[in-house]
Amino acid sequence: MSKIEGALPLPVSVDDILAARVRISGAIVHTPTLISQTLSDMLGCKVYLKFENLQFTAAYKERGALNRLLQLGEDAKRTGVIAASAGNHAQGLAYHGRRLGVPVTIVMPTTTPTVKVTQTQGHGATVVLHGEKFDDASAYARQLAKEQGLTFVHPFDEPDIIAGQGTVALEMLEDAPEIDTLVIPIGGGGLFSGMATAAKAMKPDIRVYGVQADLYPSMYSHIKGEDMACDGDTLAEGIAVKQPGELTRRIVERFADDVLLVNERRLEEAVSLLLQIEKTVVEGAGAAGLAALLTHRELFAGRNVGLVLTGGNIDTRLLANVLLRDLARSGRLARLRIILQDRPGALFHVARIFDQEAVNILELSHQRIFTNLPAKGLSLDVECETRDGAHLDRLLAALREAGYEVAPIEVA
């Protein structure tokens, strides 16, 4: 960070955030901040969860969107607003725009899943599909804003948006004043900027960490002065931002104790743990804070850590895949490849071992043709359910002791 940047006044103050709270009060859910005893015991620190997935549109983005809408002039309210978004910003803006009678247009890439398009239309917005990438949609949204006299609402790099998101920290630290560390997902940086501004004003000694998916380390790269690629198919699509905001990066530079990276496996584990332990559905980006605790346990040992479950908008099929992959990694679900001789009774003898070890067979698949085995050989894929990894190991040992060649088909 240059001395000039460090000397610049920040675009948002705690007073802006306090004013935003008054402005949006009554139209936004004051979501609970609760201790997770199980996660606390597991991770060696006291874990507080802020359930922003309980907002009406299942994400914190409503806060900034509403704060921005409420400060529009009368002409802008009549003409309407426009934004580029394929996610939670679109739904938050559309929902509160309809409530307030403000026309909302959302430009989405043509590759946006149909469910997101229909959800946004369901909140009363006009959806325009343009371009294959988000950058294309964003450029077109700005073009339409000029042509039609609409007000462009940025998803993260506007003071009113940042101030609205900062109300999350006000609630957290008032409801759980013992929190001494915040771990906040960063995409463009709007949530982190608002929360860090509020938190540092309320508790100057609080530690504030940002989290990014290691496939999209845009803010991390900026803070560290590195040039890292941002690309790939991440579970945390809500924070898959290639270019951080101009305003937000100044605030992150000022307030972040560090920015941490998490990999896809930890993100999947975090989503699964939150569903299993807290019985709450969280999208990949919303689970990034917990993924950071799983990845950097030593950094948070003994501290009172606040995590924001930023949203719960995850595709149900994707969620099912995440849960099944987690079961496979833990040994509770396995697919085994067993080499057999193609003769009567071969399957019966294998199945008897599964029965003896009390392992449930879910699915069987023979392969006689597409294999490099001799003509009288075959491979048998068995999908099965066990109690845990140790139970699976006992099954493998029993099969090998009976003379079978067997190997697990690993999950990435």
Automatic annotation (TrEMBL):
Catalytic activity reported: L-serine = pyruvate + NH4(+)
Cofactor(s) this protein cannot do without: pyridoxal 5'-phosphate
Domain ACT: 335-412
Pfam families, per database record: PALP
Entry keywords, A to Z: Lyase, Pyridoxal phosphate
Molecular function terms, GO-annotated: L-serine ammonia-lyase activity; pyridoxal phosphate binding; threonine deaminase activity
Its EC number(s): 4.3.1.19
Biological process according to GO: isoleucine biosynthetic process; L-serine catabolic process; L-threonine catabolic process
Family per similarity comment: Belongs to the serine/threonine dehydratase family.
Name of this protein: Threonine dehydratase
